[in-house]
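User: For a teaching handout, I'd like to show students what a predicted protein-ligand complex looks like in token form. I'll give you the sequence and the SMILES for copper (II) ion. Please answer with just the structure.
Assistant: Understood, here is the input followed by the structure.
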Amino acid sequence: MLSFLALTVAFATIISTTTAHYTFPNLLYKGTQYPDYTYIRRTWNYQNYYPLFDLTSPVLQCFTNGSFPNPGTLTVSAGDTVGFKVSGRIIHEGPLLFYMAKAGFRQTAASMTGAGAVWVKINETKPVITNVPEELELYKWPYYNAAEVHIQIPPCLSTGDYLLRVEHIALHIAFEEGQHEFFGACAQLKVVNGGNGVPGPYTSFPGAYSSNDPGLFLDIHRNWTLPEEYEVPGPPVWSCGL
Ligand SMILES: [Cu+2]
């Protein structure tokens, strides 16, 4: 009886670990939700939804490992908004980030790897302070519990092929060094009607983050009195200055 109980508890733990995690399998554009891994590279965890912990891994580039089918490339205009549907919901606390990388000479969105200093951060979200008295926490992560996330392609971005990288960093157990959980994916886009923006600074994956970054190694539950000063890891955001 005892062993049956132990087995049941172990099984329940496995189930909750799996269902607690999330991927970004569906692109959303102009009211259409595309099928799984259409225009989005199939991620290493597409079946088990595991978090990535290793900040030194090239898997961090696009959350792919080994080969994956070419998902195709979607044509969008600079300034358009695209989204990612979440498998389930983002049920961990932490920042949401977006990066873009432009295909180099003789590369396309489909052929580029995402290696090297090619990435520019185009958006990041910090926690926000709430003053609602009934809230247990004094702050909220804007994308906590989100079922989809959206990003505007910078209106001044130059025309060309790009990878658009979404990333959510879960910090609920980040009080232990190295216990940040990374989730994300890359969409393959052809950006048309672009502008003359000059993006930067550029960063690389791996390389953008280290395990003792103040935004990756902290206790968000206790002794954290100034969430508005939370430092989102990685380079500063580039925008068109609009
Ligand atoms: Cu987790």
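For the handout, you might add this sentence: The chain has one domain: 23-229.
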